[in-house]
Amino acid sequence: MNDTPLSNRMHIGIFGRRNAGKSTLINSITGQDIAIVSNVPGTTTDPVYKAMEIHEIGPVVIIDTGGIDDSGEIGQLRVKKAYKILSKTDIALLVLERSQGLGEYELNFIKEVKARGVPLIAVINKIDQGDVVSGLLSELQLKKINYICVSALKNKGIGELRQKIVELAPDDYERKSILKDILAPRDLVLMVAPLDMEAPKGRLKLPQVQTIRDVLDTDCRVLVIKEPELEDALDNLKNPPKLVITESQVLSSVAKFIPQNIALTTFSVLYARYKGDLDILVEGARQIDNLKAGSRVLIAEACTHHPIGDDIGKVIIPGHLNFKSEGIVIKYASGYDFPLDVKGYSLVIHCGGCMLNRREMLSRIGYASAVHTPITNYGVFLAYMHGMLERVVAPFEPEKCVSL
């Protein structure tokens, strides 16, 4: 459980006004002093993350956020940060003081949560200090909002809250399998995993590791090789592999050795399905031909890192764009800095999103789709530029793939 990446955990966000008891609540749920508790409003500034396990759900991460009623220039930045957490939240807990009721801050937050389709639980806190304000429960019932009354300080009602979280946990908060729907037990998957400069020292990349585990969990076999060993490996196999998976950067050189009757795809295409919406990302790639001088393109990465060698986001993709048309304007976003408004862009090219949970990747795709801005990911973009898009998505369209 402790080794489960945050991106594969269900995200539970805790929101509410300053001093509503959010930090006390996360400490009570986790049974640990994770967040600093103080009577001073605005103690929580940056979001606080705690990974844990809820038995009926599995690995989760609970996020404590700043107050949605914070004020001043810095306070508004904290509010903005709290709302950004919603983009990755699978279940939202709105903490209310039992004497507070629903005000403008809560109503605006509830409206935003409902617009995003995120399950919501109102947590009425501090019931150890007196009765719940008149009319609050009726208002929550009228708005069809689930609620639980608790005393986070006295640990009262926390068991009921955990049970309500289990009840409302979305079944599809993440795609449970990367490949299970296209493989059958005992199928052989051949992975070509180049150990390039961007590969972490002593380890494989996260998508490679997760895909290997997924194949094994599907009762299939996996053979992992480096690119120079590909031809020899194919010659020595008694039966051809059901599927070949490789990195986008070496797709063209790998494809030369893979017959058309053997399914071929990339880790980026796998993650386009696993984390996002493959159809939308494929359609986004098809809009590349519409780019021209003056077109603005946003290249977005989920994590922040220093470019190494021929970095895919800083070197390879810009090189393809410049070859496509001189004068394309390229902008960058990394980490949490993905803009909520991408209306001014002709195309968004996002990384595979291995460090994002599915909810956040879908949120980013949703931001683009809402303003009709095409969006694709690194691997889908590169497959299109190499004229191989149809082939790498074919394994997920059975009627187009002979071997599947």
Task: Give the topology.
Layout: E1 10-16, H1 22-30, E2 48-54, E3 58-64, H2 72-85, E4 91-97, H3 104-116, E5 120-125, H4 136-142, E6 146-149, H5 158-168, E7 188-192, H6 206-217, E8 221-225, H7 230-236, E9 243-246, H8 251-255, E10 263-266, H9 267-274, H10 278-285, E11 296-301, H11 312-324, E12 329-334, E13 347-350, H12 358-370, E14 375-377, H13 378-385, H14 389-393
Parallel strand pairs: 1-3, 1-4, 4-5, 5-6, 7-8, 7-9, 9-10, 11-12, 11-13, 13-14
Antiparallel strand pairs: 2-3
Protein architecture, described:
Helix 11 packs parallel to helix 13. The chain has 404 residues and is of the alpha/beta class. 40% of the residues are buried. The chain has 14 helices and 14 strands. It folds into two domains: 163 residues, P-loop containing nucleotide triphosphate hydrolases (Rossmann fold), CATH 3.40.50.300; 212 residues, Rossmann fold.
Overall structural class, as computed from helix and strand content, comes to alpha/beta
Task: Tell me the major beta sheet.
Answer: 6 strands, mixed
Counting DSSP H or I runs of 4 or more residues, the number of helices is: 14
What is the number of domains? 2
Rg, alpha carbons: 24 Å
Give the overall shape.
globular
> What is the count of β-strands?
14
Beta content comes to 15-25%
The run of helices and strands is EHEEHEHEHEHEHEHEHEHHEHEEHEHH
CATH topology (level 3) name of the largest domain: Rossmann fold
Instruction: Provide mean pLDDT, rounded.
Output: 87
Low-confidence stretches: 398-404
CATH class of the largest domain: Alpha Beta
Assign a percent range to the helix content. 25-40%
CATH architecture classification of the largest domain: 3-Layer(aba) Sandwich
End-to-end gap? 34 Å
Arrangement of strands in the largest sheet: 2-3-1-4-5-6
